[in-house]
Structures are given as C-alpha cells and as structure tokens.
Design a protein that fits this description.
It is an enzyme of class 2 (transferase). By secondary structure, this protein is an alpha/beta fold. It is built from 11 helices and 15 strands. The strands form 2 sheets. Strands 1, 2, 3, 4, 5, 6, 7 and 8 form an 8-stranded mixed sheet that branches. A 7-stranded mixed sheet has the order 11-10-9-12-13-15-14, sandwiched between helices.
Length: 352
C-alpha cells in the first residue's frame, strides 16, 4: 500500500556526483534565510533535498534557494510530498489522492526522473505515465492555465516518487533542468555547446539581443580550435583568438577572427573589448584572478568563463573564486554548473 509523507522544503536536480555540493548550497541558503531544517542527498542520485522543520518557513526558503540563485542546481522546486510503495498496476490513484489532499491547481505537469544511471532507466515510465496523469488531472480539475505553479512528479524508482511545484518564471524552463542542444554543423569542437548553453541559461532573450550585437568585439583566451569563437562569429562579432594551438581553417576564413599565438595569461588588448571569453585548463582561482584583473583594468565589459573545479572541496573553491571576483567590483555575477559542463562551472560577469 502506498504511503504519502507530506514535506516542506526544496528539491534540487543536479549532475550525479555533485549532490554534496547541492546540499551544501541548500544549507547555506537556509542559513541566509534564517530557517532550520536538514539537507539530504544520496551519492550519485542526481537529487538533493532540504526538508524544513517548520512548513511556515517555506516562503523564506523559496526566496533564498530559487534556481537562478544556486550554482549546482539544474532545477530548484518546492517540495510537496514523498510517495512510497506505488503499485505498478495503479500508480495513478495514490498520486491523485496525495494531490487532492493539497487542494491546489497547477498550470501544467511534468513527469521527470533524475539524470542518474538508475533514473534514466525510468525514462520510458515517465513518457508513458505523463499523458495518463495529465488527463486524470484535467478530469479532476486540477489543471488550469492561470494557476501560479507547475507540478513536477519526479520518479526516483518504479514505486517511489517525489511531488514538487514551482512558478514557471522561477524555475528552469526545461524538463529535468536540461536544455537539449544539437551540435551545430560547422562548429569546430563540442565545447561550443558549453557556450551556447551558457548564453541560453545565464542571459535572457532581451540581454542576448542587446549584448550579442553584430560588430561587437571579443577576446577568446585558450580559443583553439575555436568552439567558443564560433559562437561569437555566428553572431557577426569580431574575435581575437588567443592560443598557441591551431584554429579551425573554416573559422579563420570568416574574416572575423584574428589568431594571436600568445600566452592567454599575458595577452591584453590595445583597447577595451565588449566580451572576454575563457575556457583555459588551469587552477580555478588563477582564472578567477585573471578575470578580476581584466575587469579592474577596464579591459572588458562582460565575460563568460569556466572554472575547472578540484576533486575535493569544490563548494569551498567556488566560494573563494566568487569572492575574488566580487572584490574586483563585479556587481553582476551569474554562475551555473551547466549540463554540458563536467568538473567545472560557468560564470557570466558584468560590472553592474
């Protein structure tokens, strides 16, 4: 027989292997909001939870732990309940009963699974169950276009699920928090997907239109063979590509790229540029210090760069690097562990 455990708190989706960092972020967010509870996460499960001791503290935690505010979260949702012991012959009934007890309507429902080995095995179940649940919620008048929140049903096993909800404007707009991107024809390396995702996740539509205008100028440190440069060139932005390695020949034929065979740590442009890009493999605090120096010297308006994280104390290293950037007077910092990142995070910086 299925059992329902009502919950209050937050549910995060993340890359498997980074549950500890998600839990640390949740604990820090709760501390900043002045609320008490506990974080929990299973290794390589692709999820982390923070369970509140007092459900009345939910609004304070929600405000402090939204998707955009967290580095390691692909998605951040308000917890509703955990349902265990679902009968494979009738998963629908107990879930509808759990939702009926809340007496809430939802704008939409997404049926998801963690991005873990065990979670991906549930993809077929999620695909087949989603239309059944959606139809049942419509019959029960639990779906309404003007409802403030979207319902998320996250199967953690064939007989277990987490229920969560979030306002669409405050949540990642992709199921599982993963934007599905196709490798673009003509791009010289798969690293181009990291920058494409960064521009999609860290900037909104208006910002992309305003800050990625034809005729702008960029510097790409550690550019070869040109995966990040390609994203700028496709937007008619001129790029100085700094790398001792070879650049993609077709990219050089665009006429928008100047290749400088120089040390990325030493190169400086003669005039300030609109964008600084950097995907060099180096200690994260050294990259953070370099980016801070460019801003302190007024050499760029905006930057997008990756910080390669150590195997241990990754959350501590992120905090240290972001501190270096804030000390340089960078007021607008947006940081995400993207789907196309691995042992790294991506940072957008702009002097606010």
């Amino acid at each position: 027989m299925a059992t329902v455990e009502p919950l209050a708190g937050r549910l995060l989706y993340c890359r498997p292997g980074f549950e500890r960092e998600c839990a640390q972020e949740l604990e820090a967010a709760a501390a900043s909001a002045g609320v008490s509870g506990f974080a929990r996460a299973a290794a390589d499960g692709g999820l982390a939870e923070f369970v509140l001791h007092d459900a009345g503290a939910q609004p304070a935690l929600d405000a402090a732990a939204g998707w955009r505010a967290l580095v390691f979260a692909r998605q951040s949702l308000g917890l509703l309940a955990r349902v265990r012991g679902l009968d494979p012959q009738d998963r629908l009934g107990p879930l509808l009963e759990a939702l009926a007890a809340r007496d809430e309507r939802y704008a939409e429902v997404w049926v998801e699974h963690p991005d873990s080995d065990d979670g991906r095995a549930l993809a077929g179940l999620c695909r087949s169950f989603a239309p059944v649940l959606r139809a049942a919620l419509r019959r029960a008048r639990r779906l309404a276009d003007d409802a403030p929140r979207r319902l998320h049903v996250c199967f953690t096993g064939g007989s277990d699920a987490l229920l969560a909800a979030e306002a669409p404007a405050r949540a990642a707009p992709w199921p599982g928090g993963i934007p599905r991107l196709r490798f673009p024809r003509g791009a010289p390396s798969r690293s181009t997907l990291k920058l494409e995702e960064a521009l999609l996740v860290l900037l909104d539509d208006a910002e992309r239109a305003r800050w990625l205008a034809p005729g702008m100028r960029a510097v790409d440190l550690g550019a070869a063979p040109g995966g990040w440069t390609w994203q700028m060139v496709r937007r008619s932005i001129r790029v100085v590509a700094v790398d001792n390695g070879p650049m993609d020949a077709a990219l050089m034929d665009s006429g928008l790229v100047e290749h400088r065979r120089e040390d990325g740590f030493r190169y400086r442009p003669a005039k300030p540029v609109d964008w600084l890009l950097c995907d060099m493999v180096e200690q994260p605090r050294r990259i953070a210090a370099l980016m801070a120096q460019w801003f302190a010297e007024g050499r760029c308006r905006m930057a997008l760069f990756n910080l390669k994280l150590p195997m241990k104390k990754r959350y501590d290293e992120v905090r240290l690097c972001l501190g270096l950037l804030r000390e340089a007077g960078i007021g607008d910092l947006r940081v995400k562990h993207l789907y196309h990142d691995r042992e790294e995070i991506t940072v957008f910086a702009r002097r606010g």
